[in-house]
């Protein structure tokens, strides 16, 4: 069952091509990892799916009743902004349209508290977000995204600035979220990602989809445009066989 | 001094304007600091000078012209910025100077003796008229109503507007509305501290308030109270020493900020 279909989407910023003829089907219950180099179009693809960026050609088809929620990169907002954790999560309860004198209902607050409990961040409820560590803040953003009650959760580099322990914690959290929600994340962190995701796509303007998590060396090298040594850090298992010395340059 | 406040009408007017101006700088000041719109606000303020000049030329109340130009500048900068690749900084610079230039030309074209513009440039809280106060009350009510009634949206918009877009909320509408509010706020403040000094009154009280709280609502309230204290203190000092009120208010505010940053700065997370 396919919840979202990206059909032949291209995006150009002026003369720069960010995405070129991308096709992608997001299947229900999937845990899809999209990997690629910086500037490869990962974030652009997410923004196209979210409707934040209009594709120059092609289209995104969403199945009726699909609610997509989003966990942005840290850099998209100011960490010094005077807002409490609870208020950040409550943002997810805002509905479409603008209502005068909107107040969060008791139900909204209960929902937020329930999610905080589940993610074990209740103790930060009244903290300003600038006082949180990277891992804690990431959980708050995930909590906000879950407050929307989505069936698809998109994450943009959710572990980019985290240490190994917090990374593992976030991935395990996502794995448990994946029981009810389709998860799509973009990352350049090839190693760790492949031990959690169910399927993988490589993107560098064009997209190469791999149903299973086993990455072929060829597809990675095609994405990055050079031979690459893949090592799963933080974990004992190696994802791919080691890259030979004196490989083809 | 208290006796004089009770006795003289113009001092009472000044007191009321101080309070009305402070409400605006507490609310809008906090917003423009968090949304990094300080230069934008400066640009809007200076552009409004063109409207003030036009007001003199056409023989209408200059501040009404100023209000018109401020709103046009706010909307102009945003919509041109969206349509062209000129960045907003450059646009603000252009509006800033073009507004001033228009003001000077309009005033030169005005027949008769040139009017005294110091009160518009540097403010004169002691010269606020009855009509001026009425205009300030109306603008304060508009700003207050729009901020309070859409409070949850403003907070979310200022923090992370992209997420609001994903939720399907019309962010552009909030954006334009905010710019209009900034324009209204500036017009309220022009009478008190003038076009050139407006930015200081919009930025200093919220910056001092930020030393003491990181709650958005408390920030606005505290900045308002601080604004009132600064304005009244500045008013009293300027009255006693017979020096310009707008400039005195700014210097008082800046000294408090300096003291605050020495004793309190760094206690809260940046």
UniProtKB/TrEMBL annotation, chain A:
Q: Which InterPro entries match?
A: AAA+_ATPase, ABC_transporter-like_ATP-bd, ABC_transporter-like_CS, Metal_Ion_Import_ABC, P-loop_NTPase
CDD domains of this UniProt entry?
Answer: ABC_Metallic_Cations
Q: Does the keyword Plastid apply?
A: no
Q: Which Pfam families does the annotation name? A: ABC_tran
Going by the UniProt record, its keywords in alphabetical order are: ATP-binding, Nucleotide-binding, Transport
List each copy of the ABC transporter domain by range. 4-230
Q: List the SMART domains.
A: AAA
Q: Give the GO molecular function terms.
A: ATP binding; ATP hydrolysis activity
The answer, when asked if Transport is one of the entry's keywords, is yes
Q: Which PROSITE patterns match?
A: ABC_TRANSPORTER_1, ABC_TRANSPORTER_2
Supply the Gene3D superfamilies for this chain. P-loop containing nucleotide triphosphate hydrolases
Family designation:
Belongs to the ABC transporter superfamily.
What protein name is recorded for this chain?
ABC transporter
Q: Which organism is it from?
A: Thermohalobacter berrensis
Phylogenetic classification of the source organism: Bacteria, Bacillati, Bacillota, Tissierellia, Tissierellales
Automatic annotation (TrEMBL), chain B:
> What topology does it adopt in the membrane?
Multi-pass membrane protein
What residue range is the signal peptide? none
Enumerate the transmembrane spans: 14-33, 54-78, 90-110, 131-154, 174-204, 216-237, 243-263
| UniProt-annotated location(s) | Cell membrane; Membrane
Pfam families for the chain:
ABC-3
Instruction: Name the InterPro entries for this protein.
Output: ABC_BtuC-like, ABC_TroCD
Q: Name one GO biological process term.
A: response to zinc ion
Q: Which GO terms describe its cellular component?
A: ATP-binding cassette (ABC) transporter complex
PANTHER family named in the record = ABC-TRANSPORTER METAL-BINDING PROTEIN, METAL TRANSPORT SYSTEM MEMBRANE PROTEIN CT_417-RELATED
Name-wise, this protein is Metal ABC transporter permease
Q: Which organism is it from?
A: Thermohalobacter berrensis
């Amino acid at each position: 069952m396919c919840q979202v279909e990206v059909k032949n989407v291209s995006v150009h910023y002026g003369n720069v091509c960010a995405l070129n003829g991308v096709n992608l089907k997001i299947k229900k219950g999937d845990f899809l990892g999209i990997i690629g180099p910086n500037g490869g179009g990962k974030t652009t693809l997410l923004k196209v799916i979210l409707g934040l960026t209009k594709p120059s050609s092609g289209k995104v088809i969403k199945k009726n009743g699909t609610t997509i929620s989003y966990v942005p990169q840290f850099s998209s907002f100011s960490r010094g902004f005077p807002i409490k954790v609870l208020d950040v999560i409550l943002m997810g309860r805002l509905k479409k349209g603008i209502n005068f004198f909107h107040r969060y209902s008791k139900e909204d607050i209960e929902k937020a508290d329930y999610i905080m409990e589940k993610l074990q961040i209740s103790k930060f409820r009244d903290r300003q977000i600038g006082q949180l560590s990277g891992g804690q803040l990431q959980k708050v953003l995930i909590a906000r995204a879950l407050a929307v009650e989505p069936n698809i959760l998109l994450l943009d580099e959710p572990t980019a600035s985290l240490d190994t322990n917090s990374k593992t914690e976030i991935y395990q959290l996502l794995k448990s979220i994946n029981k009810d929600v389709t998860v799509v994340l973009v990352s350049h962190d090839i190693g760790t990602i492949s031990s959690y995701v169910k399927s993988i796509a490589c993107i560098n303007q064009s997209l190469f989809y791999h149903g299973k998590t086993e990455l072929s060396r060829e597809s990675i090298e095609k994405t990055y445009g050079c031979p690459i040594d893949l090592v799963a850090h933080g974990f004992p298992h190696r994802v791919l066989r080691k890259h030979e010395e004196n490989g083809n340059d | 001094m208290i006796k004089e406040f009770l006795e003289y009408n113009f001092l009472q007017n000044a007191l009321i304007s101080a309070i009305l101006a402070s409400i605006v700088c507490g609310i809008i000041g906090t917003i423009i600091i968090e949304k990094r719109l300080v230069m934008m606000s400066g640009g809007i303020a200076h552009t409004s000078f063109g409207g003030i000049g036009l007001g003199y030329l056409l023989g209408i109340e200059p501040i009404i012209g100023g209000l018109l130009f401020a709103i046009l500048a706010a909307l102009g900068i945003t919509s041109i910025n969206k349509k062209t690749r000129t960045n907003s900084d450059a646009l603000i610079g252009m509006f800033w100077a073009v507004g001033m230039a228009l003001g000077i030309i309009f005033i030169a074209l005005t027949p008769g003796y040139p009017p005294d513009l110091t009160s518009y440039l540097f403010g004169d809280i002691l010269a606020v008229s009855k009509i001026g106060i009425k205009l300030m009350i109306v603008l304060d009510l508009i700003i207050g109503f729009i901020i309070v009634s859409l409070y949850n949206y403003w907070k979310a918009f200022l923090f992370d507007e992209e997420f609001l877009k994903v939720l399907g909320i019309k962010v552009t509408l909030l954006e334009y509305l905010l710019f209009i509010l900034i324009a209204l706020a500036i017009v309220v403040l022009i009478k008190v501290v003038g076009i050139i000094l407006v930015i200081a009154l919009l930025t200093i009280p919220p910056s001092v308030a930020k030393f003491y709280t990181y709650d958005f609502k408390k920030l606005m309230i505290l900045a308002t109270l601080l604004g009132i204290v600064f304005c009244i203190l500045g008013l009293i000092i300027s009255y006693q020493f017979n020096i310009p009120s707008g400039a005195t208010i700014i210097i008082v505010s800046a000294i408090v900020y300096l003291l605050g940053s020495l004793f309190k700065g760094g206690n809260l997370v940046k």
